[in-house]
Design goal:
Length: about 290
């Protein structure tokens, strides 16, 4: 009798299996914010351009997500999509890692380039993607950005670049570092022709990218909280034997010290860029 009662009570108060709990909430339906630790529906986060609804934390965005939320529907035409990196130095497993990144990020390289319109204003653009090799700059990245700059010159339209990078790609050695000079030279030529360059630095923009094309805009903008700098914080502190400010190398720190023109929330970027493009258009609005 006691055994039967125990069996019944055990069945009555049995907990739901862990596997079943997981099935009740499909993977990806909720997102936890790294900033405030609050949980929200992923659809709501995406609708708000992946900016936290509670604390304003700017979540990472892929290149195609940026295109979708900024450019006029159906206006973006991608160029040089089939350009892919090779292994000029014979670096071990480099090609295998590139193939894995292609599948994970669903792009062929760490930058997507093309031409599109923002509220009717045509621009040439290069959008770096940290999902591919941490947005590192290799030969193909440098070449695609250079071609996008030259395309802007040919079409007489502004050039906008979104940067997100860990710096130069070590697997390509000095060939990667050469892209700093190549892209900078292309920007200088474009600028000499009267071209407008807008750089938008996102998290993170570091290393050789921050020391070259990312910082050469006529107008330099950044997203809130973005890490922007050349060397790492620890290396700098060890070199100068001083403790750095807590907000060192953030977009807000750079703004405070005159290295940026503005820190712009992602939700306000379209309006900001539209205003800039209107002002700099031939016969543009200046009031």
């Amino acid at each position: 009798m006691l055994k039967e009662l125990f069996a019944k009570s055990k069945k009555k108060y049995a907990t739901v299996p862990l596997d079943r709990e997981k099935q009740d909430v499909p993977e990806g339906i909720m997102t936890k914010c790294p900033g405030c630790k609050k949980i929200m529906y992923t659809k709501e986060l995406v609708k708000n351009k992946k900016v936290c609804l509670h604390c304003g934390f700017h979540h990472s965005m892929s290149s195609h997500e940026r295109i979708e939320c900024l450019f006029d529907a159906g206006s973006f035409k991608e160029f040089d999509k089939e350009m892919i990196s090779v292994n000029p130095l014979g670096f071990p497993d480099y090609l295998d890692k590139l193939e894995k990144d292609k599948k994970k990020a669903k792009i062929n390289e760490a930058v997507v380039t093309g031409v599109g319109t923002i509220n009717g204003h045509q621009v040439s653009t290069a959008i770096m993607d940290s999902n591919f090799r941490m947005g590192s700059m290799g030969s193909v990245v440098g070449e695609k950005i250079t071609r996008a700059i030259e395309r802007a010159g040919e079409l007489k339209i502004p050039f906008i670049i979104f940067t997100a990078s860990g710096g130069a790609r070590m697997q390509e050695g000095v060939l990667s570092l050469m892209q700093m000079a190549k892209t900078s030279a292309a920007l200088k030529m474009f600028s000499n022709e009267g071209g407008l360059i807008i750089s938008i630095m996102t998290h993170p923009t570091t290393g050789g990218v921050s020391a070259s094309f990312a910082s050469l805009g006529d107008i330099n903008l950044a997203e809130p909280g973005a890490l922007i700098g050349f060397a790492g914080r620890r290396i700098i502190e060890q070199t100068i034997h001083e403790e750095l400010p807590e907000d060192f190398q953030t977009a807000e720190f750079l703004m405070k010290h005159g290295q940026l023109d503005a820190v712009v929330k992602r939700t306000e970027l379209e309006e900001t860029l539209t205003t800039i493009l209107k002002i700099h258009a031939p016969g543009g609005e200046r009031s």
